[in-house]
């Protein structure tokens, strides 16, 4: 199953993420996988990353962490943009950093798996 947290997930609390995970857990068959798409962003100082919060909530809901997949959204440049010389007569071609930051080029896919309990195996 593929799921994504709401757009405002940055503001979602741990309890909200745990509620989402607890809702998705019974929807999977024993041995199933849940892929959660997360927007890539830097954590603020003193703040837990969104990925860490989602992993903790998934574990609390009975999932186990399986894999992290960075899904590339745009073609990657042939060369590192910051190494290209910028001449005064050259127009901005979009290869350089935007306001000193790299452009968002990927989304995190976090994969969780379920384990089948004896009761789930009997019902499968």
Structure, described:
- It contains three helices and four strands; from the N terminus they run βαβαββα.
- With 124 residues, the protein is an alpha+beta fold.
- The protein has a single domain, classed as Vaccinia Virus protein VP39 (Rossmann fold).
- Strands 1-2-4-3 form a four-stranded mixed β-sheet, covered by helices on one side.
- Strand 1, helix 1 and strand 2 (33-39) form a beta-alpha-beta unit.
- Helix 1 crosses helix 2 (50-60).
- The radius of gyration is 19 Å and the shape is elongated.
- The chain starts with a strand and ends with a helix.
- The model has no long low-confidence stretch (mean pLDDT 75).
Number of strands: 4
| Domain module tally | 1
Average of the residue pLDDT scores: 75
Which sequence of strands runs across the widest sheet? 1-2-4-3
The CATH level-2 architecture is identified as: 3-Layer(aba) Sandwich
Which class do the helix and strand fractions yield? Answer: alpha+beta
Summarize the biggest pleated sheet: 4 strands, mixed
Which CATH C-level class is it?
Answer: Alpha Beta
């Amino acid at each position: 199953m593929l799921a994504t947290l709401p757009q405002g997930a940055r503001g979602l609390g741990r309890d909200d993420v745990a509620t989402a995970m607890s809702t998705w857990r019974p929807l999977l068959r024993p041995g199933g996988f849940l892929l959660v798409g997360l927007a890539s962003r830097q954590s603020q100082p003193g703040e837990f990353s969104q990925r860490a919060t989602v992993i903790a909530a998934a574990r609390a809901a009975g999932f186990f962490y399986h894999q992290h997949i960075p899904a590339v959204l745009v073609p990657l440049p042939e060369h590192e943009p910051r190494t290209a010389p910028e001449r005064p007569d050259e127009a901005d071609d979009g290869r350089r950093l935007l306001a000193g930051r790299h452009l968002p080029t990927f989304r995190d896919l976090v994969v969780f798996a379920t384990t089948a309990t004896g009761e789930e195996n009997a019902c499968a």
